[in-house]
Amino acid sequence: MGEQAKQHSDAMETLQFLAGSQVRVQLLSELQDRQADARTLVERLDVPHSTVQRNLNKLEDRGWVGVTLDRSYYATPVGEMVLDALDGLLGTVQSLDGLADFVDCVPFDLFGFDIEDLSDADVVVADEQTPSAPLNAFVGHLDGASGFTLLAPHWNPAYREIVERQLPDSGRDGPAEAEVITETSQKTLLTNGSVGTLTDLLDEPGLTVRLSESSLPVGVGYVGDSVALAGYREGNLHALAVTDADAVLTWTERYLAAIRENAVTFQPQVV
Length: 271
Hints:
Elements: H1 3-19, H2 22-31, E1 36-37, H3 38-45, H4 49-62, E2 65-67, E3 72-75, H5 77-98, H6 100-104, E4 122-125, H7 133-142, E5 147-152, H8 159-166, E6 177-183, H9 186-191, H10 194-201, E7 207-212, E8 219-223, E9 226-233, E10 236-243, H11 246-261, E11 263-265
Parallel strand pairs: 5-6, 6-7
Antiparallel strand pairs: 1-3, 2-3, 4-10, 5-8, 7-11, 8-9, 9-10
Helix pairs in contact: 3-4, 8-10
């Protein structure tokens, strides 16, 4: 067995040991930074004395729990490290579980980063009760931005109002530097009335509108030190993940640069 495989095997055995009894994790938590005898632990956990003692013995055998001469138990440094690592693992698993709906509606192999890089992302998903939740979250993400890049695979006429809200009004010094990139689908734009909303945006100071000649499988809202990644279903914004993770920001910068290379300046008279 290779070294990495052995490490994975050891880690799995450790997780199986902890999962074998919820009392083991509870005992480690109770004994972190303080001592207690078995009777006190029985009262705190409200479980039989035999269960507490049996699991204390198992934890002591592993070196995660120590015992004093007066039979008070305490978590050893190794035991505290195990508990901290477990807390981190459970937090990561919980975060990744929340990403399931987002990953389900984006081509994740497009991203040049690991899913763990989204573990701290704020994820909002549309449902029957709140179908506009991702869009509202995206508006909040852009709100007050002095500049942004909006990559919209499916241009919605309502986006015009969203973009205009973020562009400079009274109280700002000079125009914002902002850009909108959407797919080159002139026929669709002309037939569904969206072309007018794009044309109106051309009059906004500091705003560049481009059309991408390649398909855009994911939406992007790039604002300063954070980015919103958007997944679509049937042309509707379905899930949004907002993060400031360095790996995601680096990928976003490169992705947007590549899209710009294949984008053309929007010309509404072209059909």
